[in-house]
Fold Fructosamine deglycase.
Amino acid sequence: MTVTSKSIIEDIKKKNPNINRVIFTGCGASMADLYPGYYFVAHESKKMLSAIMQANEFNYDTPKDVGENTIVITASLGGTTPESIAATKHARELGAHVVTLSHDESSPIVKEAEYQLIHGFEKDYANKTAKMTLALNLAVEIVNQFEGYEYYDEAQTAFNGLFDLINHEANMVTPAAEEFAEKYKDDKTIYVLGSGATAGAAYSTASFLFMEMQWITAPTIHSGEFFHGPFELALKDTPYLLFVNDGPTRHLDARALEFMQRFDAKITVIDAKDHNLASIASNNVIDYFNPMLITGVMRVYAEKLSEARKHPLTQRRYMWKLENY
Amino acid sequence: MTVTSKSIIEDIKKKNPNINRVIFTGCGASMADLYPGYYFVAHESKKMLSAIMQANEFNYDTPKDVGENTIVITASLGGTTPESIAATKHARELGAHVVTLSHDESSPIVKEAEYQLIHGFEKDYANKTAKMTLALNLAVEIVNQFEGYEYYDEAQTAFNGLFDLINHEANMVTPAAEEFAEKYKDDKTIYVLGSGATAGAAYSTASFLFMEMQWITAPTIHSGEFFHGPFELALKDTPYLLFVNDGPTRHLDARALEFMQRFDAKITVIDAKDHNLASIASNNVIDYFNPMLITGVMRVYAEKLSEARKHPLTQRRYMWKLENY
């Protein structure tokens, strides 16, 4: 039988029907990829304690009572991130049920976990969001199997249509991505905004695509927080990248956009509505599918920026070079 | 009878002994001030669902099942933040028990809440952390009264000593704060790092003291996340401000410091150990008291920076000036 999110959660439920906590933990982009799963549980569950934690914070300051009633979901793209491997081991030692998401089936993190879901990455733009999609999928299974999720079928419809939509939309945005790259290629700072389930994708874009991979300073700003401080930096030509959700928090994003426009800032918007998210996702579930679509499309923007700046996305000063830190 | 965190939670428990969820919600610095309370519940509670949410995200994308079994804690310094007032009303309409923290007893948010705790601010450095301290105090009462907290007495000892310690330490740091101000006054970007219960204080310092009040670009970086991307920007003289906890996540902060030193970055450290946090807080509770001590001391650094830059902390482009946004 193929192992799926569904079969894994069924198996855990057979062993322990009293699961009452879900912790999502990882490092960097892999932690950010868990955010939509966390956001789903935090919004839809009526009985699960939930948290998303940096893996080393989980290791050094583990919440009390993590144990047999806890599901811990860890992730590492290459499967070799030491803190995430340690978190996987630590969670198992505490008796938790540990599922890991990795691109490499023979990696150390996969060996340490009780359950593994191996995902794609290189194949196409949709696969750039495979880890994120699996994290959400696990979250939906957890809530549905342990307490029931009214919109489970609608969520499955959205999952079924997601990858084709991402690839279709990513292939449409080349001109917009080139325009973005040309406009932002000399910027030393880009502010990245998002809200709702997409807050993790904003963090990931700022911290990893921009800071790690392009060496551009990039604060992440929650769209709702913009008005409570960071908007003081909005001037003519201040460079912003704004993710706009189709779903309940759309107002927060749109309000930030209006303010930026009012002061003639330099603005690029990636809007899930422009990319037809509603064609696959009903109103009841659309919220949670924004980050995958936006991340898939954003990848094209990042590639074009990298080309315009002649700075490969794979270029590092320290990662893969230094051995001890 | 004086209303205290303790009496409020006792009253809620009398009305409903089945509380199973705590949500902390606010905007900007007031949301960040709730973080230590959230962090406490997330780490110490075995049965409470907990979350910290931007107030407008709470308003537009409210978690399912918020109601009579939920305590919602809101905060607004001046008590007039529209989204936080709306969150307070919204939570009450859903039947939740709502406690608000404000500096102004006659403010709109205070009128909307069922329970109010009015706190100081101007008096001294300790009072700059009064809201944060009350949020933690409420969190300790919630966990202790609903499920028991083994180290309750040790936490009370720390609360009792906290304000004197903050004022004592804040009054000692003038020379260090002046040195910081002189060194950083021309920087356009400062990266702010912290971990554990102090992650909210790092966010607050970066987003509000620096971005809002000094118009300096300031990404917040979790000390554990530093190594998974943002450290690629660490070069000679890159400006960092690092909060170092005395407690379980100290290793994360110290590891970031070592890396910055290795590449000769420009580093300022505010270390709770230098400021004698262990003199009031036992190992079992010390974690949660770092953000108050560090925030109190940091205020002196911010004031000195403001003076060196001749940019008052009260100067705004938009807040208090624009009426519609």
User: Anything to note?
Assistant: The longest strand of chain A covers residues 70-76. Residues 5-149 of chain A form a domain with the Rossmann fold fold (CATH 3.40.50.10490). Chain A has two domains: 5-149, 155-309.
